[in-house]
Design brief:
The protein is built from 12 helices and 2 strands. It is mainly alpha-helical. A two-stranded antiparallel ribbon has the order 1-2. The two termini are 19 Å apart.
Length: 285
């Protein structure tokens, strides 16, 4: 198992994930002794967390059986991603049937528009492109790439103001589309968001941090080859969001969930694999 920050942190993180597993194999972040509601989103996040830790999946055969009980054609696009990526991770070399592959290949990739829906549009694009990439189904998208680049203003993306999260989201999508453009103004924007006090600031005026903002900063630095200036602070804040039961929240003291948990583990894995320049690893979601 990959220790990340320490063996104790990793062991506790694995115990938390194992405690979220339901009797039928799926996972549910708010599982209790009386209530079990396994779902595809939490199962994908749980399996992702174990992947970043390089830890075995508990009762993997039961998870596979649970996943195989779904009709792929009945799943909407977001959970289709979670279902297919989960099975792929559990069964190396697995591919959906021809009809499902055709559906994945044909997923619409709408260009984002300016406005308050930019963040959501980038999130939808990321899920769809990452699903296509997982099965080698991406193809050149020059119009989409140009539309994404047209939304960059003075090196950054964001509505209503340029911010690290939207910038990282756009860079992730571009990377999965095969575009790794190291743009000078974008590098300057990302580097300027590094903070000795908070690891990263989301905007030029924001003075707060969360694990998802730190993830955005680490991913942007990885994709733009910007060395981290405050990796210890990033690690410190992330580890501060881990509770005594091993679960990571988005901020210290908040309630955890499996999405925040796997995000924190992915961030720590990227830090642990930084190169000699201090550039973190790019770990495709």
């Amino acid at each position: 198992m990959r220790p990340l920050a320490s063996a104790e942190v990793a062991d506790a993180a694995v115990r938390y994930i194992a405690g979220r597993q339901c009797r039928d194999g799926g996972f549910c972040f708010d599982r209790t002794a009386e209530l079990e509601e396994p779902n595809l989103a939490d199962t994908w996040f749980a399996l992702s967390g174990l992947r970043w830790l390089d830890a075995p999946v508990p009762r993997a055969d039961a998870v596979v059986r649970w996943l195989e009980g779904f009709d792929a054609q009945a799943l909407h696009d977001e959970v289709l991603h979670h279902w297919a990526r989960s099975l792929q991770g559990l069964r190396p070399g697995w591919r959906p049937d021809a009809g499902t592959l055709a559906r994945i290949a044909g997923l619409a990739l709408p260009a984002p528009e300016d406005g308050p829906g930019l963040s959501r549009a980038l999130g939808v694009l990321l899920r769809r492109v990452s699903l296509q990439a997982a099965f080698g189904l991406t193809r050149p998208q020059p119009a989409l790439v140009q539309a994404l680049l047209d939304h960059r203003h003075e090196g950054a993306w964001g509505e209503p103001v340029a911010n690290l999260q939207d910038t990282a989201a756009a860079l992730r999508v571009l990377a999965l589309l095969g575009v790794r453009e190291v743009h000078a103004q974008t590098r300057q924007f990302v580097d300027a968001r590094q903070s000795a006090a908070l690891g990263f600031d989301n905007t030029a005026t924001a003075r707060y941090s969360r694990v998802d903002i730190l993830c955005a900063g680490v991913d942007a630095c990885a994709l733009l080859e910007v060395p981290l200036r405050h990796p210890r602070k990033v690690r410190e804040i992330t580890l501060g969001a881990q509770r005594g039961d091993g679960a990571f929240a988005d901020v210290p003291g908040a309630l955890p969930d499996l999405q925040s948990h796997q995000s924190a583990l992915r961030l720590l894995a990227a830090l642990a694999q930084a190169d000699a320049r201090g550039v973190p690893a790019w770990l495709a979601p």
